[in-house]
Amino acid sequence: MSNVLINFHSTNTTSMAITQFNEVVAEEEKLSHECKQLLLSLPKEKGWRTPHLYLYQNFWCQPTEIQAIMSFQKHFQAKESDIVLASIPKSGTTWLKALAFAIVNRKPSAISKNHPLESSNPHDLVPFFEYKLYANDQLPDLSTMTEPRLFGTHVPFASLPNSIVKSNCRIVYICRNPFDTFVSIWHFLNKIKPRSSPSVSLEEAFEMYCNGVIGFGPFWTHMLGYWKESIEKPDKVLFLKYEDMKGDLSFQLKKLAKFLGSPFSVEEERKGVIEKIAKLCSFESMKQLEVNKSGKSIKNFENKNLFRKAEVGDWVNYFSPLMVDKLSKLMEEKLGGSGLSFRVFH
Ligand code: A3P
C-alpha cells in the first residue's frame, strides 16, 4: 500500500481530484495493524474506487470494508427480532430498505404525514453494518435502536456472523438480473471514483464483472449463497427479485410484510395502505426529495447517485451481441441447475 500522499498545485478540479485520491490512501493508512497484516496475505486485483480489491473469505472487497466486516463478524450479536436486508450492490438495496422500514414502522392502518422517509435517506434509517455501524474501527452502541432492528449488508451469506445465521432473526435478500446490475454498477462506480482516476470503460468493467472481480462478488456466489438458504430455510431467508417487484409490487409487499411478521390486515388493504407504501417508496417520489438530492448517507457516496433510471432492461442500450452472449453463457454455467433465473426485459 502506498505511503505517498500526493501534493499538487494546479486547477481547482485537479487538486480536488488529488485530494479525493489522497483521502482514499489516507483511509487505508489508518487501518488496524491486524487488518494491514491480513491484507498482505490476500490475493488482490486492481480496484475501481480504491487502488485494489482484495479477496477476503472468497469475495472481493475494499480494505476499509474488510476491517469493518472483521469487526462486524467478531462483535455483532443478533436478536431474534432483528431483520437483516442483504444484497449485492446495485440490486435495489435502497428501495428494499425504504419498503421494509415503511412496513415495519407503519402506524396502525395508515402511513403518517411527515414520514421519516421524507426527511431521511433509507440508508440513515436502516444502517449498513459495514459502511456505518462497524466502519472506522468503531463499536456501535445498538442498545438504543427500536425493535425490530433493521440492518443492511452486502456481506455474502457464508460470511455473516454466526449469531445472524444461528438465531431466528430474519434475512431478506434482494436480487436483480446481472445484465441491469452490471450497467447500474458501471454508471455508479464511474460517478463515485476519484476524479483523478480515469473512467473505467464499459468493456474493461465487463471483463472484471465476468471475472467476479467486483465489490462483494463474484455475483453468482453471492446470489447462490442466499438463494440456497432461502430454499432450505424459507422462514429464515426471503429471496426477492427486483424485476418481480417492478412487475407486481403489491403482491411482493404482501409477501414481505407477512415474512416480517407484520402482515397487512384486511382493513389496511381496504384503506390502501399497500399502495401508499408503494408510492412513498417509489423511485419517482424518492428521487425528488431534497434529502435524496444532496448529502452522503453512506460515506463517500452522494445520495443523488443512488437514484438513476430504475428500469428493467436498460442493459439493451449498452450491451453488444458479444457481451450478451458472454454473460448469458456465464449465467448458464454458474447459475444453471440452481433454479435461479431472471426476467431481463421490461
Ligand atoms: P439503476 O442504476 O439501474 O437506475 P442500490 O440501491 O442497491 O444501490 O441499487 C440502485 C439501483 O436501484 C439503481 O438502478 C437505482 O436507480 C434503483 N433504485 C433506487 N431507488 C429505487 C426505487 N425507489 N425503486 C426502484 N428502483 C430504485
**How many E-type strands?**
7
CATH level 1 name:
Alpha Beta
H/E element sequence: HHEEEHEHHHHEHEHHHEHHHHHHH
The N- to C-terminal Cα distance equals: 44 Å
Mean pLDDT: 92
EC number: 2.8.2.-
GO molecular function: sulfotransferase activity
Family: Belongs to the sulfotransferase 1 family.
Keywords: Transferase
Brief rundown of the structure:
The chain has helices spanning 12-29, 33-41, 63-75, 93-104, 116-119, 122-125, 129-133, 162-166, 178-192, 202-210, 219-232, 242-247, 249-259, 266-270, 273-280, 283-287, 290-293, 321-335; strands spanning 44-46, 52-56, 59-61, 83-87, 150-153, 170-175, 237-241.
Write a structural description.
It is a single chain. This protein has helices spanning 12-29, 33-41, 63-75, 93-104, 116-119, 122-125, 129-133, 162-166, 178-192, 202-210, 219-232, 242-247, 249-259, 266-270, 273-280, 283-287, 290-293, 321-335, and strands at residues 44-46, 52-56, 59-61, 83-87, 150-153, 170-175, 237-241. A hairpin with a 5-residue loop joins strand 1 (44-46) and strand 2. The strands form two sheets. It has a four-stranded parallel β-sheet, sandwiched between helices. A three-stranded antiparallel β-sheet has the order 1-2-3. 47% of the residues lie in helices and 9% in strands. With 346 residues, the protein is α/β, with parallel strands linked by helices. The chain has a single domain, classed as 3-Layer(aba) Sandwich (Rossmann fold). The protein is built from 18 helices and seven strands. Adenosine-3'-5'-diphosphate binds at residues 87, 89-95, 180, 184, 187, 281-283, 286, 306-310, 314.
